[in-house]
Each structure stands twice: as C-alpha cells, then as structure tokens.
Amino acid sequence: MRAVSLIGAPTDVGASDRGASMGPEAMRVAGLHQALAQRGLDVVDRGNLAGPANPWQTPSSGYRHLREVVEWNQRVHDAMYAELRHERLPILLGGDHSLGIGSISAVARHCRDTGRSLRILWLDAHADFNTSELSPSGNIHGMPVACLCGFGPSELTRIGGAVPAIQPQWIRQIGIRSVDAGEKRFVHEQGLEVFDMRFIDEVGVRQTMEMALEGLDDRTHLHVSFDVDFLDPEIAPGVGTTIPGGPTYREAQLCMEMIADTGRMGSLDVMELNPALDVRNRTAVLAVDLIESLFGKSTLMRKHAPPR
C-alpha cells in the first residue's frame, strides 16, 4: 500500500491575486482524501501549515512579500522533507506557485540523501523563470524555477542546503504559453527543456509526454508540479492567471495517465487553485479527478498499449 500525505499551504503571498490561500480547503471539499483512499492508498491529511498573513504590499527591491514568501517556503520545505524521510509520498496543496521553491528544494535534498536522480515535470501555462530584474510585477510566483536554479535572493536559493537546488536539465516544462520577453531570452540561455503549446499542437500529447519522461529508471525520483492554470480556462476557470489555449480535459488526462504508467512519481504539488474565481468548485473537482489519474485511475484495465 502506497503511503500518501496531504499538506495544505494556505497562502497567496507570492501571487498577483488573492484567493489561492483557499485552494487546499477547496480540494478537501472536492473529496481528495476520499478519492485517493478509494484507490487503495494509505492517506493521511497533515492539515494546514501556519505562516505569515498576506500583507498585500507593493514590491520592495524587486520582490513582493519576500520575507513572507521565505517563511512559507521554509515551512513547506520542512514538512515535505519530513514526509519523504518517512517514505511517504507528499502532496502539497497550494497556495501559489512560489511554494514550489520549498517543495522542490526538499525533494532535491531527499534525492541527495538517497543517491537518486531527480526529474521534475512543471505543468504550467507559465515558465516561472523570472528574476527581480525581469519581472514586471515583482510577484515571486513567477520566479520559482529561476530560484531553484540559483537565480534569486539567497534567502530563497539556499533553502534545502544546496545552491542551486536543481540543474535546468532536470526539469521539463509542459503546456507553456505565456512567457515575458526578458524571461524568454533567459529560458533560452539556461537551456530549459520547454514543451510549449505550439509543440504539443504540432506533435501531440503522447509524443510530448514520451519525450518528457524519456530516461526515467528505478533510481529516478519523479516530481510533478501541477499548476492548475496549465489547463485551458474553459474547463478550469478557478485560477488567478487564465491563459487561453491550454490542454483540454482529455489531453490533461493523457498527461496524468502517462505519468502514472511510469510508476516513478514520488511527490506532487497542486498549485494556484483559486476558489474565489471558480464556479461551484468546478476547478477543484477537476483537479481531484486528474490527481486520481496520477495514481492510476483509468477507464479499463488495458491489455496492451495502442500502436505507435
């Protein structure tokens, strides 16, 4: 029986809109615990982490709410790392995507401890590779990947004990369709592997995911960081930054099912769900459905793979 731990991080200190702080409870209301338990998982809900309130201030020295973001990420790091040390699969329920700094720093630290390689799937509409010099807003939820790669304030880049926490070649970004001009150049310079929506349109979801998952072996820890705005806003309106043209329901299901088929997922973030902008908790229900697919839900027991 796989052991899974739910960790709520109810904050929107890194975001441009208020409301992501309510995301963890929305997923609980949508039945996440029950859905995973029905899949035969040993599920424990650790409740919500506590941290500083959102002061809703303007940016200072290129960052909005840096002190609060650092404190939340340290608490996320500690909680995720503790679950990994106890051989449980942690699911971080966000909260805005700046929390990915603490989450993935913890996963990278665990991989260093255990001698495992790390692969990160970043499912998102945005590259989140801004810096204070490049960001038009100063919102740190647009900077987590850059911080993890060592580009950012030391208070964030050193969480987890190694700088940088990850190497750009460990990450695969999928579904990207909104990148700032300076950020676009920086992504190119650092050599991030980005499968944007044009790529997905041209080659299809199946080939995209095969490429993103290529090379996984039994010594690889697969971390999935799922920003709900990865999805097309027609099916997932409950996010702060809706960008048209994202994956459809079936495309998203195929992504999740192919990840599940690897059997390698060892940790998960679910980020940026904003119930204040949702319709009757529709986006949370969809998120729970997709998380179930990450843990093996499928229509039938498949006898064989379809032809290539």
From TrEMBL:
CDD domains: Arginase (cd09989)
Record keywords: Arginine metabolism, Hydrolase, Manganese, Metal-binding
Cofactor note: Binds 2 manganese ions per subunit.
Metabolic or biological pathway, per its Swiss-Prot or TrEMBL entry: Nitrogen metabolism; urea cycle; L-ornithine and urea from L-arginine: step 1/1
Binding of Mn(2+) 2, residues: 124, 126
GO CC field: cytoplasm
Sites where the protein binds Mn(2+) 1: 97, 128, 227, 229
EC number(s) recorded for this UniProt protein: 3.5.3.1
Cofactors: Mn(2+)
GO MF annotation terms: arginase activity; manganese ion binding
NCBIfam families (alphabetical): rocF_arginase
Name used for this protein in its record: Arginase
Lineage summary: Bacteria, Pseudomonadati, Pseudomonadota, Gammaproteobacteria, Steroidobacterales
